[in-house]
């Protein structure tokens, strides 16, 4: 490879990384705060519900957050005069969707056909697979998002352990309940993450 070809290749790589980072800048900060607040509201609304009714509250909350995220992406794409359906968005979806779809489907399966208390299993499934989805796009995500993914992964695994062999932490899980567990992770983790991003990142800078 000649020096000219090498330079061209490096420029293509830098351009690709910048394009991929756009998706995270659009979804970080304000989107995390909005998602955290919506999760706390869903946790409160679902507290007295069970089974499919409990899951419906969280699905409606998810739909609202997705609409907000799409609006964020459209706004960012318009401001930068870029296409909404960018290469970065395609790569992010390709990495995250398998875990999100698998976890979502299994959680709904537990809610529909599981026994009493299946809400906690569904919540643990969603938390674990959301963490896996964030880690699946770690190669081009900010380091802060990797820590967020690890927090979800560890909490999801700990929840499953509490339901099986780690009896010492099961009282914590019983105290929280499925709504509290979802609110603490999707609400608390996202609020902490969003607050850290908003207060430490300058406007126009990368969402690290």
Poorly predicted runs: none
Structural class: mainly alpha
Cα(first) to Cα(last) distance is 34 Å
Summed over residues and divided by their number, the pLDDT gives a mean of: 85
Protein name: DUF2157 domain-containing protein
Keywords: Membrane, Transmembrane, Transmembrane helix
Transmembrane segments: 22-45, 51-74, 95-114, 120-137, 146-169, 181-200
Organism: Haloferula helveola
Question: Can you offer a commentary on this structure?
Answer:
Helix content is 82%, strand content 0%. The chain starts with a helix and ends in an 8-residue tail after the last helix. It is elongated and about 65 Å long. The longest helix has 31 residues, at 170-200. It is built from 7 helices and no strands. The protein has 208 residues and is an all-alpha fold. This is DUF2157 domain-containing protein.
Question: What structural keywords apply?
Answer:
208 residues; mainly alpha; 7 helices; 82% helix; 0% strand; elongated; transmembrane helix; membrane
Protein topology:
Elements: H1 3-27, H2 30-46, H3 51-79, H4 87-113, H5 118-136, H6 143-164, H7 170-200
Helix pairs in contact: 1-3, 1-4, 2-3, 2-7, 4-5, 5-6, 5-7, 6-7
In short:
The protein is 82% helix and 0% strand.
């Amino acid at each position: 490879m000649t020096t000219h070809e090498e330079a061209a290749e490096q420029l293509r790589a830098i351009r690709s990384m910048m394009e991929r980072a756009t998706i995270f800048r659009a979804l970080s900060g304000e989107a995390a705060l909005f998602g955290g607040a919506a999760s706390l509201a869903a946790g409160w609304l679902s507290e007295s519900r069970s089974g499919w009714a409990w899951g419906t509250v969280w699905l409606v909350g998810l739909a609202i957050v997705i609409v907000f995220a799409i609006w964020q992406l459209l706004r960012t794409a318009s401001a930068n005069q870029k296409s909404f359906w960018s290469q970065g968005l395609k790569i992010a979806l390709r990495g995250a969707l398998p875990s999100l779809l698998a976890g979502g489907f299994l959680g709904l399966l537990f809610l529909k056909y599981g026994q009493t208390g299946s809400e906690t299993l569904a919540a643990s499934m969603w938390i674990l697979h959301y963490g896996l989805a964030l880690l699946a796009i770690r190669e081009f995500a900010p380091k802060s998002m990797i820590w967020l993914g690890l927090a979800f992964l560890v909490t999801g695994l700990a929840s499953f352990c509490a339901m099986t062999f780690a009896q010492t932490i099961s009282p914590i899980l019983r105290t929280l309940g499925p709504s509290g567990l979802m609110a603490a992770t999707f609400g608390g983790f996202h609020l902490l993450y969003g607050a850290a991003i908003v207060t430490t990142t300058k406007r126009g800078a990368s969402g690290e």
